[in-house]
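Much of what follows relies on a compact textual record of a protein's fold. With that in mind, consider the following protein and its fold in token form.
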Amino acid sequence: MQGIRQTAKLAAALVRQTQQQSAPTTTKALQQHIRGISTIDTPTPSILRPIGSNRKVSPSAGDISALNWPPQQSVSAISPLPETVQAWMMDFETNDPVDIIDVQRSVFASPIRTDIVHRAVTYERNMKRQGTHNTRTRSEVRGSTRKVQPQKGLGRARHGTRRAPQFVGGAKAHGPVPRSHETEIQRKVWLMALRSVLSAKYAQDQLVIVDNMEIESYKTSDFARMIRSNGWSPATATGRHPSIMMLPLMDPDNITALDNLELASRNVQGVSLMNASDAEVYEILRHDYLIMDRKALDLLQDILKPM
């Protein structure tokens, strides 16, 4: 019996010694041994991607060229439309076609944003308001501050001075005061509105481009006759006056050549003359026809072209 016990102890000691020799010696090796994972022969992926996604992520280590990092930049789309559109150049006095010119599509054929035009028109009209409206308050209106009747005993409402707003000749409650109606708008938004207005005039065939606006006569009758013969004046049966906005570039070198135009158009109702450098969205919008010379065209294209 004792011999059997000794034999069993020797066998158990031999098994423990064998397990200790074959067991992993480190924590990392133990985890790999338990999971049955061996990373020695595991190949390194060429591209690291999250599970369920095709998006590349930055590798934490290894050869960058082997992992195809960084990803290639995306190529921007190219518009199939040409950069320019064509327009007629007319003669100012006879309205006959002279040449065909190219104008920028981004300026004269851009999308028409009515909401942006509304913002620009509101901004420009608010800038022109004087803001001098005023009403008199209780301290400014004329009248005595004596109490008009006793506080109690008459059965009437309680009243104090005759300057109160409920009395005739009294003050105005919460009336307007002198203030500025000026608002703000981003410059890029205003430029977008100007592009929209010019594009609308071009699309409606209400844009007239001329080489120059020099005329020989300074008489108003000759200028009015020229407008009617060119078809820029509505029929007299409608009762409307001609609505024309002339937009030349009044630079110091060209200001004397436009003296006859300014004198002839000064007394014609519905005809406006404005420097191209001072162009406004509202003034262009409220006129039927927009007439500009070649210098004004070049100036507007330089200002309104996209960055």
Summary: The chain is about 30% helix and 10% strand. The beta strands are 84-90, 97-104, 207-210, 244-247, 271-273, 289-293. Residues 2-22 form the longest helix (21 residues). Confidence is low (pLDDT under 50) at residues 37-48, 58-62.
